[in-house]
Amino acid sequence: MSASISSTNVNKVVLAYSGGLDTSIILKWLQDTYECEVVTFTADIGQGEEVEDARVKAEACGASAIYIDDLTEEYVRDFVFPMFRANAIYEGEYLLGTSIARPLISKRMIEIANIEGADAVAHGATGKGNDQVRFELGFYALKPDVKVIAPWREWDLNSRNDMLAYCDKHGIEVERKREGSKSPYSMDANLLHISYEGYDLEDPWVEPSESMWRWSVSPENAPNEAEYIELTYQAGDIIAVNGVLMTPAQVLLELNRLGGKHGIGRIDIVENRYVGMKSRGCYETPGGTIMLKAHRAIESITVDREAAHLKDELMPRYAKLIYNGYWFAPETRMMQSAIDASQATVNGTVRLKLYKGNTMVVGRKSDNSLFDERLCTFEDDEGAYNQKDADGFIKLNALRLRMNQLAGK
Prior knowledge:
Blueprint (H helix, E strand, L loop, with lengths): L2 H4 L5 E5 L4 H14 L2 E8 L8 H8 L4 E6 L1 H14 L16 H15 L3 E3 L8 H12 L4 E3 L10 H11 L15 E4 L4 E4 L29 E8 L2 E5 L2 E2 L2 H14 L4 E7 L5 E7 L1 H17 L2 H20 L5 H12 L6 E8 L2 E8 L7 H4 L12 H19 L2
Helix pairs in contact: 2-7, 4-8, 5-6, 8-9, 10-11
């Protein structure tokens, strides 16, 4: 134990706890290193795992209190849907499935810290990744004086073998990974996506094995017949799928099912982490891929041109803020307010065709539509648009171009 650690006075800490190897070790390590109570928090955000197993493990490890919360609806309603109103996408491909989950977890951990009177929070993110930044920016934004403990930046457990030896020494029961019994990849899942990193993906030239993917069939093995779906929007959010009203989480769950069925939403990218390194990851985001395509389609007929273009200009900055962990920052809240204001008229229905990895928009309609067939028809518009007006419009816009050319002679 280092002097800096031992001299830190911590009475109670709230730990983001999954029940897996890392966080089970962290629970015991916190008790021994800081001689403090440990409150565990496990979030159900649609990851598809039995979170109640974490309760049994936390009890066995001596947690002083255990919180297991179903945050699925809050996650989609208050985090995923607002992000999709912005059409957010990082570096042209990544739909931010991990990034957008972190501020909700940070928020709930601080709420629990306040309830429990804890003076510290802890997480199991490594010192190499983005998640340490995302969690901690959220913690400090919501509770500026909180003590943050990041064991991966403090302890000397540097390998899986070191960690298993620690478990053996301290009697921590963990499930041992048998050959072929579990995925060799580092995975993170929530209702929006599942991510894969590590193992053979560390070579960016190696194609992922088909057996890696969990949520979708390959496009080659998807149905040979296209499927049509209709999504109903209200103020920029989907409220119904094929005419059936659904909660936000139900919408995403159903779109994940439909997208996965048709091989939609797989990507393989090398992204730029906030901490400076490039990282290769594979992602499945079937429902989110459909949502992005459909939202842009309904906006295309309901949002003014300049408002839409301004949104597109803001979007890369907005996506970068979310990726880097600044969900609670003033600039993000300001941008979200502007984005939400643009969605008042984003109402209507989008029809899509799903086929072998493709999401195709084939129809859109809205009572708030700005599309006027009379103005754009190739037939007789009966005077709706005077084509002679274009002459002055073009000449005024060409004035500076003409002046630049003349000045250069």
